[in-house]
Amino acid sequence: METHDGIVTLAGSVANVLAKDRAEKLAGAIKGVKSIVNNIEIKSVNRTDEQIQRDVENALLRNPVTETYEVGVEVEDNKVLLTGEVESRAEKTLAEKVAKGIKGIQEFENNIDVEYEEDRTDSEITEEIKRILETSVWIDEALIEVTTLNGHVTLSGTVGSALEKSRVYNAAWVAGVESVNDDNLEIEWWAHDNMRRQSKYAEKSDKEIKKAVKDAFIWDPRIVSFGIELEADNGIVALSGKVDTKREKNLAVKNAFDGGAKKVRNNLDVKYDYDWIEEGREYEWLDYQPYRYWPYYPW
């Protein structure tokens, strides 16, 4: 890697497209980074277009969420093209992340269309984006402004890193949004110093945490939330009820931490029981970090 005036250039090689994206995300989290030039190459492997297409289709079918999506897969010269229709930006993004983990992909294009079930007013869109920014433990919303006109969202203000800017951009893609413009969202390293939360956790009441976690369950298309019950006491969130898969149980823990929980007691029952989470175990926030990004891989 090389740096010049806050611009980071990455070079080298990785095994798949997902690893390339991950490297860029990690670099963007560093204080002072304004943008990334990602020249990382994907290691060449001897795989035919037919093999890649088969594996991408299987990955989408085996995932308990994306198996219901109407997504088409085309492969030519190791370049993958996704087409079709889904009902939200989150579904489009998840399909992309599942597909990118397949070996042999050299280029990737996501042309999936998002068709919302109903139209929404600009004020509804703006308020939902603000709520998401306010409840996220990874975003300082104090210096961010959100405006919406005819479904087109404009973000302006200041963030502390390239990664935070990316998170704000992705958070703005709620139902009803036609486009998001973050050109006026400036990256200033001092924003993290002056705005950084002094405590290890965001200071929220149990009522605020409970609401944030419930909202996260409702808006996460990967979780069927009507079978989940939760309680919050002194920042500790207790989950109970039933979910269909172990993946949903793990995602429930992730969403609870994102909602501001200091600890999570996960007593959810699932149909299959074979993963790393143990019944009744109490999880510390730092204990959970090594697993933080795994739900996006097609395992």
Secondary structure: elements and pairs:
Blueprint: E1 2-4, E2 7-10, E3 13-14, H1 17-28, E4 35-38, E5 41-42, H2 49-62, E6 70-76, E7 79-86, H3 89-100, E8 107-110, E9 113-114, H4 122-135, E10 144-149, E11 152-159, H5 162-171, E12 179-187, H6 190-195, H7 206-219, E13 228-233, E14 236-241, H8 246-258, E15 263-266, E16 282-284, H9 285-288
Parallel strand pairs: 2-4, 3-5, 7-8, 7-9, 11-12, 14-15
Antiparallel strand pairs: 1-2, 6-7, 10-11, 13-14, 15-16
Characteristics:
4 domains; alpha/beta; four-stranded mixed β-sheet; 299 residues; Histidine-containing Protein, Chain: A; disordered C terminus
Q: Estimate what percentage of residues fall within beta strands.
A: 25-35%
Remind me, CATH topology of the largest domain? Answer: Histidine-containing Protein, Chain: A
Principal-axis shape equals globular
The assigned CATH architecture of the largest domain is 2-Layer Sandwich
The structure class reads alpha/beta
What's the CATH C level of the largest domain? Alpha Beta
* N-C termini distance: 30 Å
Could you please describe the fold and organization of this structure?
The protein is α/β, with parallel strands linked by helices. The chain folds into 4 domains: 2-42, no CATH class; 49-114, Histidine-containing Protein, Chain: A (2-Layer Sandwich); 122-195, Histidine-containing Protein, Chain: A (2-Layer Sandwich); 206-286 and 290-294, Histidine-containing Protein, Chain: A (2-Layer Sandwich). 33% of the residues lie in helices and 26% in strands. It is built from 9 helices and 16 strands. The protein has helices spanning 17-28, 49-62, 89-100, 122-135, 162-171, 190-195, 206-219, 246-258, 285-288, and strands at 2-4, 7-10, 13-14, 35-38, 41-42, 70-76, 79-86, 107-110, 113-114, 144-149, 152-159, 179-187, 228-233, 236-241, 263-266, 282-284. The strands form 5 sheets. Strands 6, 7, 8 and 9 form a 4-stranded mixed sheet that branches. Strands 13-14-15-16 form a 4-stranded mixed sheet. A 3-stranded mixed sheet has the order 1-2-4, covered by helices on one side. α2 packs across α3 (89-100) and α7 packs across α8. Mean pLDDT is 82; it is low at 285-299.
